[in-house]
């Protein structure tokens, strides 16, 4: 079934061969050694990979991407009628809420004036769009089309209209990489809105839920509680929406993020004031 | 026809390597298994190149793909680069024994190498960068390897002919 085992012999000088092998092994050792530091060679490699390799790989994988988009659009087209019905019902419901919201907003403005309060604690750095994603194998990473030229720095938070998406872990001149909340290697400090229970959340590995890795005083939040960033670790700004408690066990609880990680097009990079 | 004559099997395998690398590092939300399949295919092709088309240029190939896989999938250089180079060095050390094996024994070794390679990468990522062991991913890789292994062998065999 398999071809007979054979090794092709190439007529090359032994010195050149050994030199290449030793150089490659030495270079690899050095790269692994310096990988975790902000050494400029590693930075250069990362820069090349995001500005040269990523566009090339996107071009090569374009047919698969086109097919994936076609299937996505076909699925959307199929569910059009059903979605339309739901949206009509939603419009009626929202119109009722709108009247109430306008009243509340007026009241809110008046009360804020009385208290001399500011609106929020966030500074918007840049709105960036998604270039590509590497969130299937290993880490859950996405690449954005804005970098340090747009004043994006490491550890800034990435949000969208639904809440917290992740954290910037690398920036080059025109690109930046964001690690998603669902990554098992990212921890966020959060608190529940109703009880103010502080805990640490990490990705569950399945890419859907966040799971608590530490809960302060072992107090479990209630099912359905909304969880926001606590701001205690001073990485994420305080009070960013994270998700809803979906499952509570004896020593841990699961949170369903508000963000739909499958539908990310634009992200806002923010930092606290 | 003339163009296909120009391409020898080693070049064809390298083209497969480039394509499978490109597809595996670009996630497709609707078809996550496509990424995983091409990731396994990349490893299959790389092992095949080492086993049947060993040449010292493969060290450079291992260096390039190792770095790129590590940066694009893990954001740190280490796991893939070490694994690919380790496999090459191991092959050089063991090739005198591998030559004596039959075709079926080679296929078995080939499959075992693939699984060990995929596990070793996770293990190294865990040791070097504290990456949490993802059992879902390992099971997925194992299933995909089982499914695509034999068809890929046939494909490579045809390319070699």
What does this 3D model show about the protein?
The complex is a heterodimer of chains A (273) and B (161). With 273 residues, chain A is an alpha+beta fold. Chain A has helices at residues 14-34, 40-60, 62-78, 80-115, and strands at 122-134, 141-144, 157-160, 163-171, 176-180, 187-192, 198-203, 210-215, 226-229, 241-248, 253-257, 266-272. Chain A contains four helices and twelve strands. Chain A is globular. The N and C termini of chain A lie far apart (66 Å). Chain B has one domain (2-160). Chain B contains seven helices and no strands. In chain B, helix 3 (32-52) packs across helix 7 and helix 6 (103-129) runs antiparallel to helix 7 (135-160). The two termini of chain B are 15 Å apart. The mean pLDDT of chain B is 88. Classes of the chains: A alpha+beta (273), B mainly alpha (161). At the A-B interface, helix 1, helix 2, helix 3 and strand 1 of A face helix 2, helix 3, helix 4, helix 5 and helix 6 of B.
Q: What oligomeric assembly is this protein in?
A: heterodimer
Structural class of chain B: mainly alpha
Low-confidence stretches of chain B: none
The span between the termini of chain A is: 66 Å
Global geometry of chain B: globular
Protein traits:
heterodimer, A: 273 residues, alpha+beta, Thrombin, subunit H, 3 domains, 6-stranded antiparallel beta barrel, 6-stranded antiparallel β-barrel, 4 helices, globular, B: 161 residues, mainly alpha, 7 helices, 83% helix
Summarize the structure.
The complex is a heterodimer of chains A (273) and B (161). Chain A has 273 residues and is α+β, with helices and mostly antiparallel strands.
